[in-house]
Structures are given as C-alpha cells and as structure tokens.
Amino acid sequence: MNSIPERSCWGVARWAVAAFLVAIALIYLFGGFQAAQLAVG
Fold first, then answer.
1. Which of 20 and 3 is assigned the larger pLDDT?
2. Choice among 7-11, 28-32, 33-37 with the minimum mean pLDDT
C-alpha cells in the first residue's frame, strides 16, 4: 500500500460537510437562527 494517502474528492467533501455541520451547531448554540438570519441579510 502507499504510505502517502491519496487525496480524493470524497475526503474533501467529507471535511466540507463536517465543517458546515460544526458551523451550524455553533450558530445554533451561541446565537440561534435569528442571529444567523440577521447576519446573512
């Protein structure tokens, strides 16, 4: 097997989804979705 992990688009997508879920959780915990709506527009 290769000692160097190959980068696949699935790995990037997995990290993107994880980061998105963490951001939603932080917005929900700290400000609620009203604050998110005000920040967006």
1. 20
2. 33-37
Report the C-alpha gap between 5 and 9 in whole angstroms.
13
Rounded CA separation 31/41 (Å): 15
Choose between 22 and 9: higher pLDDT.
Answer: 22
Question: In the numeric block, which tokens belong to residue 26?
Answer: 């932080």
Burial of 27 (0-12, 13-18, 19+ CB in 10 A): middle
Q: Are 27 and 36 in contact (CB under 8 A)?
A: yes
Extents of the domains making up the chain: 8-40
Please state whether 11 falls in left (phi above 0), alpha (psi between -120 and 50) or beta: alpha
